Structure formats: structure tokens, C-alpha cells
Amino acid sequence: MATSGPLLSLAAGVMPDFSPQQTVAAAVTSGWPAVGIWYDPATWTPTTTIEIRDRIADAGLVALDIEVIWLKPGPDDPAHFAAIDAGAAIGARHVLVVTSEPESARTAEKLQRLSDHASPSGMRVCLEFAAFTTVGNVHSALAILDAAGCEDVGLLIDPLHLARTGGSPADLATIDPHRFPYAQFCDAPARGPPPSDVPAIIHEALDLRLMPGDGALPLTELLAVLPRDTPLSVELRSAALRNDYPDPVERARVLLMATQQWLR
Question: Which segments in the chain show pLDDT lower than 70?
Fold first, then answer.
């Protein structure tokens, strides 16, 4: 169902208990205009690529992103480039990257190599920061991108991670809008676990997110500072949502309706 406003995408993280094919099917049936795809190198096959590519094309769906590339210490991982190839084959616009690489310079070098691999297909690499990664806030993320000259690498903002790393929408106001090709979207209480309690922060991020409007994150302010109509990947990882809506289509439909209602 087409609506005015930002492009809304069903994030892969909403459906951790279903395959990418099932996630796409749920997005199509429930009316999402876009979808995110989870790439697992252990289970992804050429058949997976064909099935997802064809279903997305037949439905006129946008593949907003494919995730997740997690950078680790050591040499480049061939699976990361395979993820980009899979994303290119299904028509994904972005590839989401997080990092545990302790050296900022090495993170930047790896990001640039991933970006060079992605750019011929039109995909953009986007770096996400979080308290449980080695890029712990928006300022650290921007410093990595600027210092390395990673001009085409995007900066992915998750409102929960922004809040839990001490940031606010005001921190984004002076950043080049080109850095924000899309953003994530969810709600949560204004205050969360203490920054020192990383396991609790991870638990909140994976299981305790709230529907837009059910929490107190500054979502209105965030949308106001991002470029107009920035596509939103609705990243509502929630144990309650999974338990209350075990059917993937119903889960996707409820989340889309709640998001649209908040935006209105």
C-alpha cells in the first residue's frame, strides 16, 4: 500500500526466526514497500539469491539493505564481499556494516575496500555505531569516515543506539546530509541500562525495542534533522512482538500499521 512520507522498510531484525525468503513474503503480503535482507554465509546459496531477487522484482519491492557485515581484527573476510555480491544480485541499495576492529585506521581501510567493491553496482556501504562495537558513538563513526576519506560510505543512525551512546539528534545537524542515505527507526524508554552494562544494552537492542510512540526517544526531532523523506528501516527487535505475533505476515502488518499511524 503506497503512502506519502518516507519509504518504510521491514528490517531483517524484525524476523530473526524466519528465513530471508519468508521475510520478503511477509513484507509483500502485509504491504511494506521495502524490505531488509539478512545474509548468513552459512545458509545463503545461489538459489537463495534467485528466489529473493525474483520475488522482490515481481512484487515491485525495494530491497533497502542487506546485513550484516561485522568487521573483525585480521585480514579481510571473503564472506563480506560475498554478502555485497548477493546484495547487488537482489538489487539492494545499501549494505550495513558494524565493527569490532580495534584500530580506527584499519576499520577505515576495510570500509573503503568494501565500498570500492559495492560501488559498481550502485550499493552504498553504511557504518552503524553502537555501545557494543568499537565505534561507540556518532562522533567516533564520523571521525573514521572523514579521516579516511570514505566519501561514499554512509553513516547509519539507529535512534536507540544514538540515545544509548549519549548522542542526540542535535549531534547530526552539522553532518553532511549525504552521509545519511537511510536510517533505522524504533522507540524505547528515554533512559536505558547504564553504559557500563554492555550485556543489558545488547539485550535491550535485541529484545526490548518498542513501537514508535510507545517510548520516549526523540523520534520527531530525529526525523526533522535528517534529510527530508530519508528511507526508514523499521528495526523493531522485540521479544514481545515475536511472542505476540508468531505469524510473520501478522507481525509485519501490525508493525507497519503502528509505524504509519505514528508518522501520521
Answer: 1-3, 148
Nearest to 15 by CA among 264, 193, 234, 211: 234
User: For the chain, how big is the Rg over CA atoms in Å?
Assistant: 17
Question: Is 234 buried (19+), middle (13-18) or exposed (0-12) by CB count in 10 A?
Answer: buried
Check residue 3 and give its pLDDT. 52
Q: End-to-end distance of the chain based on CA atoms, in angstroms?
A: 15
What's at 176, amino acid-wise?
D
What the block records as the C-alpha cell of 233 is 528501516
Q: Please, is 49 exposed, middle or buried when counting C-beta atoms within 10 Å of its C-beta (0-12, 13-18, 19+)? A: middle
Other Cβ atoms closer than 10 A to 44: 19
Dig out the grid coordinates for 130 from the structure: 553502537
Q: Within 13 Å and on the Cβ side, how many CA atoms surround 116?
A: 7
Q: In 3-state terms, what secondary structure has residue 125?
A: strand
Picking from 16, 64, 19, 29, the residue whose alpha carbon sits closest to that of residue 256 is 29
User: Residue 222 corresponds to which cell in the numbers above?
Assistant: 530525529
pLDDT at res. 2: 44
Dihedral sign for Cα 261, 163, 13, 193, please. Answer: negative
Cβ-based burial of 246 (10 A; exposed 0-12, middle 13-18, buried ≥19): exposed
The Cα–Cα gap between 27 and 217 comes to: 26
Q: How far apart are CA 92 and CA 62, in angstroms?
A: 7
Q: How many CB atoms lie within 10 A of CB 208?
A: 18
DSSP state letter for 124: E
Report the alpha-carbon distance of residue 97 to residue 135 in Å, rounded: 11
